[in-house]
Amino acid sequence: MLLRLAWRQSLIRLLLFYALALGIGLVLDEPWWALGIATAVLAARAYWRLYRVLRFLDWRKQLRTVDGQGLWAALETLIHRRQTENRTRSRRLVRLLRAYRQAATAMPDGALVIHRRDGRLVWFNKTARHLVGLRYPQSLTEPLADFFPEQPRVREWLASGQTDEPLTDVASPADPMVRISLRLIPYSPTQWLVVVRDVTKLMRLEQVRRDFVANVSHELRTPLTVVHGYLDMIEPEEHPDLAVMVEEMRRQSQRMTQLVEDLLTLSRLEAQEHLPEEPLGMASMLVTLRREAEALSQGRHQIVVEDLAGCDLTGSVKELHSAFSNLVSNAVRYTPTDGRITIRFSRTADAGARLAVIDSGYGIPAQHLPRITERFYRVSTSRSRESGGTGLGLSIVKHVLSLHQGRLEIESEVGRGSTFACVFGPARVRARSAAEA
Ligand code: ADP
């Protein structure tokens, strides 16, 4: 609309201008001169307007007024409109950016942006500055891991790029009394967002809980031993009227002792960061596991041992034995008579190793699987109690495996059986010793 009107106006004005020039030329009897001068005036005016437009197209200058009418004025109007729109948009963007920055800065958690490739810092907020001991702007472009020189696990964790599990209980470089947790969030193809949280209180509470459980378990141990001792001294034959009661009391005190022992084992494992690195001969371990399974089963199950890996492991012999035994004992306890239990030691595709305990037992409904390794979690409390379970076995297994950088894989189908597999990385595998082969 604006353009069509401008076209029309310009054309009319041009024609009028030339008509006027021609009129004056005819009066002066010099029409060609008059037309020539008119053309020169028009060209000069066009150059002047072009210069003005070009000057205002320079991004620093804003066109303030639009001069006159016609095509040049229409062009200036359009430029003016675009310029105003662009300025408004960029002002809005700057405001938004500032608001986001302010929000990120005001966050109670520390936030840092680092390059994925080398972990160098790109940006960090105020909380991160306090929690990690950074200085602005000196710390920018420094690798984040360099701020944790005494904690190599931070460097390893950053290098591994683990986004699902945060790294917890890290001492803050600014104040070792402050404990922090770090979480990696992939937010662009080239950068990570690292969220740093002060978990000092949480860690203290966790410590209080751990100490409490360990102390209670420890305190219960002595009275239980005394009760157990006295119960053992009562001969049911001498007191036939008390026989049933004594038998039940013995069973319950045994259960309590087992509970206390399992709780103490868990506390001990939780307090440990590293376990001894010992060679673990798997051939003899498999023989021991078979013997234990047979002793527990009392001939009620078919026990099969398959040694397909031809390698050994490294780790804590005692803890790994306890984890494997737990799985074997579960398989026996949760498999009805005539069932089959297979203990299979094999290699994994990534050159690691896997000890699987496969049973043809009751199986576990799928909805229970995600919680099965929680303390005291049982699919069927009565079945667990009847079979002498404490509900702590799988928690212990999971802990032992995580201390060996391994994991527990569980597959199960109700009525068909379950497979519990301890999976170890290649770093835990060692060639089988001659004595074991
Ligand atoms: P518990 O001492 O009760 O056996 P665990 O931590 O060892 O405790 O196991 C937790 C629960 O997982 C058990 O109560 C049982 O319901 C289930 N479970 C463990 N192993 C098996 C298995 N091989 N087959 C079926 N259910 C199992």
UniProtKB/TrEMBL annotation:
- Please name the top-level EC class of this enzyme: transferase
EC number(s) for this protein? 2.7.13.3
Transmembrane portions of the chain: 12-28
An annotated GO cellular component of this protein is: plasma membrane
Q: Does the keyword Thylakoid apply?
A: no
Question: Which UniProt keywords are given for this protein, alphabetically ordered?
Answer: ATP-binding, Cell membrane, Kinase, Membrane, Nucleotide-binding, Phosphate transport, Phosphoprotein, Transferase, Transmembrane, Transmembrane helix, Transport, Two-component regulatory system
Catalysis: reaction(s): ATP + protein L-histidine = ADP + protein N-phospho-L-histidine
Listed under GO biological process in this entry are: cellular response to phosphate starvation; phosphate ion transport
Major place of residence? membrane
GO molecular function annotations of the record = ATP binding; phosphoprotein phosphatase activity; phosphorelay sensor kinase activity
Q: Which domain of life is it from?
A: Bacteria
**Function noted in UniProt:** Member of the two-component regulatory system PhoR/PhoB involved in the phosphate regulon genes expression. PhoR may function as a membrane-associated protein kinase that phosphorylates PhoB in response to environmental signals.
Under PROSITE patterns, the record lists:
HIS_KIN
Show the InterPro entries listed in the entry: BphY/WalK/GraS-like, HATPase_C_sf, HATPase_dom, His_kinase_dom, HisK_dim/P_dom, HisK_dim/P_sf, PAS, PAS-like_dom_sf
What's the name of the protein? Answer: Phosphate regulon sensor protein PhoR
Domain Histidine kinase intervals: 215-428
